[in-house]
Amino acid sequence: MATFITLVSFTDQGIRNVKESPDRFEAFKAVAEKMGVSVKGAYYTVGQYDMVIVVEGSEELATAMMLKVGSLGNVRTQNLRGFSVDEMRQIIGRMP
């Protein structure tokens, strides 16, 4: 399973409807888990991004989930593939 860190920014539509954001997140989480993507953490933030979400799942399912979220028009996302310390040790161990 891959880990993804998603940086979320509200669109104009999303900020106009910000009061609905916690409910939209709960709906996102329910759909993600039905798809086999596990939501490991979610935080509202102040600064350049409005939320940070951490999910685990196959690359295909996690990508499909984020594309679906973006298509709704409330947020834009940037997805980062995350590696644990142990995963990075294995990657570095494969270097010639």
Task: Give structural notes.
With 96 residues, the chain is of the alpha+beta class. It has one domain: Alpha-Beta Plaits (2-Layer Sandwich), CATH 3.30.70.260. It has four helices and four strands; from the N terminus they run βααββαβα. Strands 2-3-1-4 form a four-stranded antiparallel β-sheet. Helix 2 runs antiparallel to helix 3. The model has no long low-confidence stretch (mean pLDDT 96).
Secondary structure class reads alpha+beta
Shape: elongated
The strands making up the biggest β-sheet line up spatially as 2-3-1-4
Question: CATH superfamily, please?
Answer: ACT domain
CATH architecture label: 2-Layer Sandwich
Give the count of structural domains.
Answer: 1
Q: In CATH's first tier, which class applies?
A: Alpha Beta
Q: Portion of residues in helices?
A: 40-55%
Order of helices and strands: EHHEEHEH
List keywords for this structure.
single chain, 96 residues, alpha+beta, Alpha-Beta Plaits, four-stranded antiparallel sheet, 4 helices, elongated
List the helices and strands and how they pair.
Elements: E1 2-10, H1 12-16, H2 21-35, E2 38-44, E3 51-57, H3 59-71, E4 75-82, H4 85-93
Antiparallel strand pairs: 1-3, 1-4, 2-3
